[in-house]
Amino acid sequence: xxxxxxxxxxxxxxxxxxxxxxxxxxxxxxxxxxxxxxxxxxxxxxxxxxxxxxxxxxxxxxxxxxxxxxxxxxxxxxxxxxxxxxxxxxxxxxxxxxxxxxxxxxxxxxxxxxxxxxxxxxxxxxxxxxxxxxxxxxxxxxxxxxxxxxxxxxxxxxxxxxxxxxxxxxxxxxxxxx
Amino acid sequence: xxxxxxxxxxxxxxxxxxxxxxxxxxxxxxxxxxxxxxxxxxxxxxxxxxxxxxxxxxxxxxxxxxxxxxxxxxxxxxxxxxxxxxxxxxxxxxxxxxxxxxxxxxxxxxxxxxxxxxxxxxxxxxxxxxxxxxxxxxxxxxxxxxxxxxxxxxxxxxxxxxxxxxxxxxxxxxxxxx
DNA sequence: CGGGTCATACATACTCGGCATACATACTGA
DNA sequence: TCAGTATGTATGCCGAGTATGTATGACCCG
Lengths: 178, 178
Known about the structure:
The structure is a homodimer.
Chain A: H1 2-13, E1 16-17, H2 18-28, H3 37-49, E2 53-56, E3 66-69, H4 71-82, H5 94-104, H6 110-137, H7 141-165
Antiparallel strand pairs in A: 1-3, 2-3
Chain A binds a DNA duplex through residues 3-4, 17-20, 35-39, 41-43, 46, 61-65.
């Protein structure tokens, strides 16, 4: 979804062809999201199929094909932007399943898992701090805001790991699901 | 990934057939992850193709086909469990792209977006609190731990929204990426 | 100067995994 | 007999990655 509407949002400004869309998108994300070029083109094709976007003129320079937003595209973009991400929080990330399995498998080494995961989060925190600093240095206030959100997430994860580590783990806890 | 290894983890305990895998998996997640039945079967087929799982005996009762872990499956599962989720934090969620676009599109109504999103997070918070309570009532300590993590995430999101809302948004900030 | 090589801009095709819908079929209990 | 549940297959979309192809311009070397 984010890529699809990210592309729409970029095309709102001015018509672009695929390759340029990729560059703008990655620039907008400040290098935190490297998009596969193939995906850009399939995304554009789907957008065209759904009538949100349409090709402009004939193929130019070297096969370049520019796209522009259709009126429906404008509408879809505005709606998406106006709508908050709601719905229940998805628990689909690996860490959740790992915790559950480590709990119910006999020698799951839950404490080790937590310790390793905590280290990974600390590393992530360092990376994000560097990234935020760079964004500010580059005057990318918008990007720094994103990184700030990611930082808060990772801090939450760390806090979580700490809480869990300080629990006493009983032997026969939880795992009754039959 | 989580589904694939979740299935492996369930099969570590005892051989199961697809339908039963689905039930156990959803029970393990306490209803927070409804898996599509088709996906279970394709996952099992891929696991079999990759030699991590193998069918047991002939088809039983009503076409039931049980699977058990192969030695390679055991190894793969243990490795996955031992490995923390590392790598950089992905900024692929809708909210990030929405923020960027709302910033750079002229009348992006950033403040409105933040307010709406905050309301959505508050709702999520309520749902998670109910869920945690239920998990504890059911003696599902393992599940309550997960929900606790999700709660911390959502709290972080709220904090983020508050920070952003109290910023003063300049007109010509950020959006220089050419 | 001319030709080879290399990078870059630009695009397509193919593949795989996640995920959902829809369908088929057997059993089971009211 | 009918509803529901148990169990499975087929099909298709979307996200994402790999591989390939073709121009064009730059750069180097004899």
